[in-house]
């Protein structure tokens, strides 16, 4: 978001109408910025291609109604991480055995982090393969 700040701040000091945003969120590999109006959306469309991204990242501006609707499942495993719980596929296999009515084999890991305070691991799964999601 630092790169976006570099282009937003000068625009907000100009004499023309400044771009305005309602909010932004970050979830897994997606940064969602909500524009306040169509003028801001069009401004963002011209600026995003000029941003420097981190390695392997791509940025695209899409309308909210064009975004994928993902079904997410969050899992919190409290306590010290155990060697076998660090393996995402082990966690998915356990979930599949404990939830036979869900189609867990179709799930992929959207986000995973190990936390210190409180100690534990957070997993966020989505119901599609990440390669499929990135292709869309």
Automatic annotation (TrEMBL):
Residues 16-129 form the DUF4780 domain. InterPro entries: DUF4780 (IPR031961). Pfam families: DUF4780 (PF16012). This is DUF4780 domain-containing protein.
């Amino acid at each position: 978001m630092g790169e976006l700040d570099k282009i937003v701040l000068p625009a907000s000091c100009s004499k023309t109408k400044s771009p305005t945003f309602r909010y932004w969120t970050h979830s897994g590999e997606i940064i969602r910025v909500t524009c306040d109006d169509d003028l801001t959306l069009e401004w963002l469309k011209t600026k995003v291609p000029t941003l420097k991204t981190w390695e392997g990242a791509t940025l695209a501006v899409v309308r909210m109604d064009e975004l994928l609707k993902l079904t997410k499942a969050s899992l919190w495993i409290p306590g010290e991480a155990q060697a076998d719980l660090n393996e995402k596929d082990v966690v998915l296999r356990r979930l599949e055995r404990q939830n036979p009515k869900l189609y867990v084999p179709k799930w992929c890991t959207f986000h995973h982090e190990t936390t210190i305070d409180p100690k534990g691991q957070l997993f966020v799964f989505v119901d599609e393969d990440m390669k499929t999601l990135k292709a869309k």
